[in-house]
């Protein structure tokens, strides 16, 4: 059932892009989607890579954004990131109670806003910056005064500070660059559990589902485990005398 829903959602997205491309081609003005997750971005890139007369750019508000809006332009127009319909909210609190990423997203969606109107949420200590569609900024400022059990202050942020996703580098020695070996090392689980997750369609490579435990992973590949997070094979450092592989894995926190 989940696969059927996903396939239907993908078909709707493709049709939506076809409409936006036609609009851009006829009106000679740019068009924009709502926020897309990385898998949707990959789907669009693969589906429309041979379309002539238009260009597509993805932008999420800052350099390392994961969720991005797709801008559709006439092929002769330049890409202007400031034209994307993205605004930023700054949320801060002084409560000693912990406020999580899930709490922030839940408070936003609890106002009736759709998920595709919200981009990345970057949280640091007792504050967070949220990328949102510009049309919902005023509504969210009026609607949110609490996140979880914490009272918050929310404001439109006109100048975005330097943002980057927090991560740590893990060094490991693994038997090979097979997917199950990299997953086990990156997420700190047994090889058996890694295989189970892969076969259960919980693991994605470069935002696409992967059920083959033996798939070879390359430098730069991003691996997501649904419900557990995301890692990236940063570098293959070298090999040992017993032909095991030394790797550096970036784990996003």
TrEMBL record:
Q: Give one Pfam hit by family name.
A: YlmH_RBD
RNA-binding S4 domain location is: 177-250
- InterPro entries recorded: Nucleotide-bd_a/b_plait_sf (IPR012677), RqcP2_RBD (IPR040591), S4_RNA-bd (IPR002942), S4_RNA-bd_sf (IPR036986)
Which UniProt keywords are given for this protein, alphabetically ordered? RNA-binding
Q: Does the keyword Zinc apply?
A: no
One GO term in the molecular function aspect is: RNA binding
Task: Quote the SUPFAM superfamilies the UniProt record gives.
Answer: Alpha-L RNA-binding motif
Q: Which PANTHER family match?
A: MITOCHONDRIAL TRANSCRIPTION RESCUE FACTOR 1 (PTHR13633)
The protein here is known as: RNA-binding protein YlmH, contains S4-like domain
Its organism's taxonomic lineage begins at: Bacteria, Bacillati, Bacillota, Clostridia, Lutisporales
